[in-house]
Specification:
Catalytic activity: D-fructose 6-phosphate + L-glutamine = D-glucosamine 6-phosphate + L-glutamate
Order of helices and strands: HHEEHEHEHEHEHEHHHEHEEHEEHH
Subcellular location: Cytoplasm
Shape: globular
Number of helices: 14
Bound molecules: 6-O-phosphono-alpha-D-glucopyranose
Radius of gyration: 20 Å
Number of strands: 12
Distance between the termini: 24 Å
Structural class: alpha/beta
Keywords: Aminotransferase, Cytoplasm, Glutamine amidotransferase, Repeat, Transferase
Enzyme class: transferase
Function: Catalyzes the first step in hexosamine metabolism, converting fructose-6P into glucosamine-6P using glutamine as a nitrogen source.
Length: 364
């Protein structure tokens, strides 16, 4: 591709810095203040159909799968529909039961990932209703689905996805709000989420303005041979995506675990040479997360917290502006994109084209 780099040294850096503007675009023209909801023109799902959904199953690969994990939690929280995400390839190889009351959602930046497309085709053949959350307009997955949401992130060139991940999570917030307001989400909660959505672009810009602080931290992690990422419920998909991003562009081994699973195994790995990145939002699970930090500290583990307030048990805290609890995951991953990026810079990696990876995998 030959898009202008606009003074940035890599597409990844350029695309991270486009995120405030990109989120503005995914919101534009969609908020309906009068009904405390959003209008999603391409969804092709009327209110009666939306009410009859009993489950939501989200399918994607790589970073899009992680965006789907964030989305599943938002749908469950705001619309109170049981929802989960699964890698598209796993889904299609396990001969899944296709259920007429389930809404299936395929997530893809490119709209061309073969495993996702094949899952959509199999679902359609079995009569399922499938929506797409896709970036590239008119792509194969966009054409095969019954309707969906374009995420309007703009062209993404770097192999690893940043702005499209963020916009996809915002698109899911819109879908969750839309489904919620058709079902049982109150007007007051609808308004609260809308106000939160409107704050996102400026909060993202604020995080990006703080990149120098993260650049300074990166030197500390460049020489780790392995890193642990932990989060709980809303923080867990954030940890998964941050760990993927780090390994993709730095080649440092990284693992992501739910904070609650630490004591069931990975705590054995904790030592000074195995730093932990912990997602610690100021939500109803704050005390539980603080307890996990204490367990790591007691084993002399180094901790970098991504949080809304300084965490005393952590060696460093990256402060992130607070939004509504349901929307916090959208913001908490952004400093960790920057951390992966600056760590890869320290190591002089080929950031836009990591070894062995391709931007879109259109073969099996
Ligand atoms: C490849 C890329 C990943 C991407 C995944 C899904 O594996 O290297 O960065 O997340 O495909 O791509 P999609 O276009 O479907 O979102």
């Amino acid at each position: 591709a030959s898009y202008d780099m606009g003074g940035h040294d890599t597409y990844m850096h350029k695309e991270m810095h486009e995120q405030a503007e990109a989120v503005d675009r995914v919101l534009r023209g969609r908020i309906e203040d009068r009904f405390a909801t959003v209008r999603l023109g391409g969804l092709n799902l009327d209110a009666r159909e939306a009410r009859s959904i009993r489950r939501v199953k989200i399918l994607g690969c790589g970073t899009s799968y992680h965006a789907g994990m964030v989305g599943a939690q938002m749908i469950e929280e705001l619309a109170r529909i049981p929802a989960d995400a699964e890698p598209a390839s796993e889904f299609r190889y396990r001969n899944p039961v296709v259920d007429p009351d389930t809404l299936y959602i395929a997530v893809s930046q490119s709209g061309e990932t073969y495993d996702v497309l094949a899952a959509v085709q199999e679902l359609k053949r079995k009569g399922a209703r499938v929506l797409g959350v896709v970036n590239v307009v008119g792509s194969a997955i966009a054409r095969e689905t019954d309707g969906g949401i374009y995420v309007h992130a703009g062209p993404e060139v770097c192999v690893v996805s940043t702005k499209c991940f963020t916009n996809t999570t915002v698109a899911f917030a819109l879908l969750a709000l839309h489904l919620g307001r058709i079902r049982d989400l109150s007007v007051a909660d609808g308004k609260r989420i809308i106000e939160g959505l409107r704050r996102l672009p400026e909060q993202i810009a604020e995080i990006l303005r703080g990149e120098d602080e993260i650049r300074k931290l990166a030197g500390e992690f460049a020489h780790a041979s392995s890193m642990m990422f932990i989060g709980r419920v809303r923080g867990y998909p954030v940890a998964r995506e941050a760990s993927l991003k780090l390994k993709e562009i730095t080649y440092i081994h990284a693992e992501a675990y739910p904070a609650s699973e630490l004591k069931h195994g990975p705590l054995a790995l904790i030592e000074p040479d195995m730093p932990t990145v912990a997602i610690v939002p100021s939500d109803d699970l704050l005390e539980k997360n603080r307890a996990a930090l204490e367990e790591i500290k007691a084993r002399s583990g180094r901790i970098l917290a991504v949080s809304h307030a300084v965490q005393e048990k952590a060696d460093h805290t990256i402060l992130v502006p607070q939004n509504e609890p349901e929307l916090d995951p959208i913001l908490m991953g952004i400093p960790l994109q920057l951390l992966a990026y600056f760590t890869a810079k320290e190591l002089d990696r080929d950031i836009d084209k990591p070894r062995n990876l391709a931007k879109s995998v259109t073969v099996e």
